[in-house]
């Protein structure tokens, strides 16, 4: 039986381990956080120390294709989520009021997902995976073990070395240790070339509060307040969760120092109260204080450089490969898509480490890179808009080549079918370029958007917000 070590026991690491186990492999997961799996979802939220996961108690949504992967590969985890009273996504809830036709459409089930707090989701997956996989918590990996090279100049990984000096040998090491991975350092210690990296430093900051209702019901979100809304220099994300919980997040850009005052609960509350579509969300019982997360840059790593793997016997998945702006909620989907692809390739090519490394890079190019680049494009466009507002410059109108995307988003606020196309970009993580290439989409959007402008959400514009924060 082939032995695999997975470094990192988060959602992506656990899911990868489970899928590999289903293929008949002996899998061990090494997780550096020492806290053991709590007995209940409530305890997972209140007292599970997961310092290695930056978004563990932040706003979170399980995108529809990620839900589909769990449904197909680890269905018992979804049973746990249903028992935890997860919220089922409803297309109509996300529709702005300006869309008059709210009739369900055939195929709406492709948007199906269950929405919970991030800690509850990991608890559900871990509860199932631990029945089949050896999960060792509180074990920190310090480096990689070198094996016999299969290609001149390319080191081969034969296992890992832990911080206490133990060696765990394996036929394959999978690094799923997240955006804080030390993999580049470990590879350098073996004499490997560094991975190829591209980054975009469009950092944002999250200011989030969670609320819960006394009766366990989620408040009405049909007024257009669900999910993401762009204001002139800030955004608001509203996400329902489980057991009558929901989160409200204000997203600002790190270069916008004036809005840092939103870290104060009272000023954050003043802003939400001043937004008509969001003010009623303050009526629940607030849980704790302000949850702040910053430094949300984008990074893509590739481990085949100039057509040659930098190491064999080692694969990377999840945020180790691609970290994206969490505003768009694509991280878990990208990680689970990699878990599926990695499992398929390990099943077919584990006997040939060189071929496995090359095929893995091809899989990433097909399944990850387009979505990553689309997310960066969205982030860049939004950052440019905010920067223009902050600097007192007019927001540029779309150039001719960008008009189709602009028309689609304008028309989607009125046309029920085009709204669903936009929703595919948001919930399905489908690159915008792919959506616009569909027959008839651009023509229909051009006609539907004629004479219309992008609606402005109800809430303070920047001058008013600055006055509020200065008070």
Describe the protein.
This protein is of the alpha+beta class and 471 residues long. The chain has helices spanning 11-22, 41-47, 64-73, 75-83, 91-94, 118-129, 183-189, 265-273, 331-349, 353-367, 369-390, 403-411, 416-427, 432-436, 441-449, 462-470; strands spanning 3-7, 26-31, 87-88, 114-115, 134-137, 141-151, 154-162, 167-169, 172-175, 196-200, 204-212, 227-230, 235-240, 245-253, 285-293, 298-302, 304-305, 308-309, 314-316, 322-323. The strands form six sheets. The protein has a five-stranded parallel beta sheet, with helices on one face. The protein has a five-stranded antiparallel beta sheet with strand order 12-13-14-11-15, with no helix packed on it. It is globular. Among the domains are: 3-20 and 134-200 and 297-373, FAD/NAD(P)-binding domain, CATH 3.50.50; 204-295 and 465-470, Alpha-Beta Plaits, CATH 3.30.70; 393-460, no CATH class. The protein contains 16 helices and 20 strands. Helices cover 36% and strands 22% of the residues.
Secondary-structure blueprint:
Elements: E1 3-7, H1 11-22, E2 26-31, H2 41-47, H3 64-73, H4 75-83, E3 87-88, H5 91-94, E4 114-115, H6 118-129, E5 134-137, E6 141-151, E7 154-162, E8 167-169, E9 172-175, H7 183-189, E10 196-200, E11 204-212, E12 227-230, E13 235-240, E14 245-253, H8 265-273, E15 285-293, E16 298-302, E17 304-305, E18 308-309, E19 314-316, E20 322-323, H9 331-349, H10 353-367, H11 369-390, H12 403-411, H13 416-427, H14 432-436, H15 441-449, H16 462-470
Parallel strand pairs: 1-2, 1-9, 2-5, 9-19
Antiparallel strand pairs: 3-4, 6-7, 7-8, 10-16, 11-14, 11-15, 12-13, 13-14, 16-20, 17-18
Family: Belongs to the flavin-dependent halogenase family. Bacterial tryptophan halogenase subfamily.
Organism: Kibdelosporangium phytohabitans
GO molecular function, one term: oxidoreductase activity
